């Protein structure tokens, strides 16, 4: 059995749901896959769709993140004096507000996530959604799709499941998780594809002291720790497709930082907008096309 998991990224102010983005990506990519002779992605109803970080029935206690950001924004706005009328103030004022918004409602999501408790809270929401649709005792091949901070969530989730550094049973129970379910998923699930876009993974590698030391020694990370070194149930080797655009200030390549897997950085040049490029991946035909072109690559044996 194959399942697809969709994980959205940073949440702009006033977000309500990501179903439209998930469907646009699913339909656009499926159309391109069909043209390339591949099977379409399964319907969203048969896929794991994640919502986190804002008030939503599926977001659990991660909804408090958006509420905290609203309080911060309200207090900052109330404390901000009126602009001076100098030429420089008038010139740069239009740029300040969107940059502040980027920090308060975009980068703040990532800062919250990379904290240990923030990461665990969001991961538990994703894990719970996966268990609603996927039996951990059933052999399953996963395609995990993550955008922006969702790519961090995806990579950390896979590391949590497939590396040899999983939490011990007592820690899992303390988080309200069943250790037997986690171990069963580790045994029975495989990664078929990891698809990331608009990903800040490379910029945030140094959030771990162990990874910082590896990079300081000019080393690379082992993608096998993400489950990308083990054949799927259909005998295929996993594939990591990372889509990025230099106009997107949050997006970076990943291929130079990992070994032990078939990893491809894809560059569709899908947007010239500094502010719009980050959200455009879901809907951009150029993105769907480059992913479809790489979808059927048959990796060789991994080293």
TrEMBL record:
InterPro entries: AB_hydrolase_fold. It comes from the Bacteria. This is Alpha/beta hydrolase. It comes from Euzebya pacifica.
């Amino acid at each position: 059995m194959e399942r697809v998991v969709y994980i959205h990224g940073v949440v702009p102010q006033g977000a309500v749901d990501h179903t439209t983005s998930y469907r646009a990506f699913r339909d656009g990519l499926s159309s391109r896959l069909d043209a390339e002779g591949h099977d379409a992605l399964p319907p969203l109803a048969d896929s794991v769709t994640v919502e986190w970080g804002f008030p939503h029935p599926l977001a659990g206690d991660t909804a408090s993140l958006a509420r905290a950001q609203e309080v911060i924004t309200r207090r900052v706005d109330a404390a901000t004096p009126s602009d001076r009328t100098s030429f420089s103030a008038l010139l740069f004022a239009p740029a300040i507000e969107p940059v502040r918004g980027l920090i308060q409602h975009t980068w703040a999501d990532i800062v919250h996530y990379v904290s240990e408790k923030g990461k665990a809270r969001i991961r538990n929401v994703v894990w719970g959604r996966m268990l609603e649709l996927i039996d951990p005792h059933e052999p399953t091949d996963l395609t995990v799709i993550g955008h922006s901070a969702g790519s961090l969530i995806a990579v950390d989730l896979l590391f949590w499941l497939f590396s040899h550094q999983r939490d011990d049973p007592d820690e899992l129970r303390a988080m309200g998780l069943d250790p037997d379910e986690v171990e069963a998923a580790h045994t029975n699930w495989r990664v078929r594809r990891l698809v990331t876009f608009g990903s800040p993974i490379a910029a945030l590698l140094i959030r771990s002291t162990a990874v910082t030391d590896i990079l300081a020694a000019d080393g690379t990370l082992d993608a096998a720790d993400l489950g990308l070194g083990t054949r799927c149930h259909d005998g295929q080797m996993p594939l990591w497709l990372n889509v990025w655009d230099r106009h997107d200030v949050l997006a970076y390549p990943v291929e130079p930082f990992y070994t032990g897997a078939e990893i491809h950085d894809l560059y569709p040049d899908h947007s010239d907008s500094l502010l719009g490029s980050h959200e455009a991946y879901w809907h951009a035909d150029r993105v769907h096309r480059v992913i479809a072109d790489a979808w059927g690559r048959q990796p060789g044996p991994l080293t």
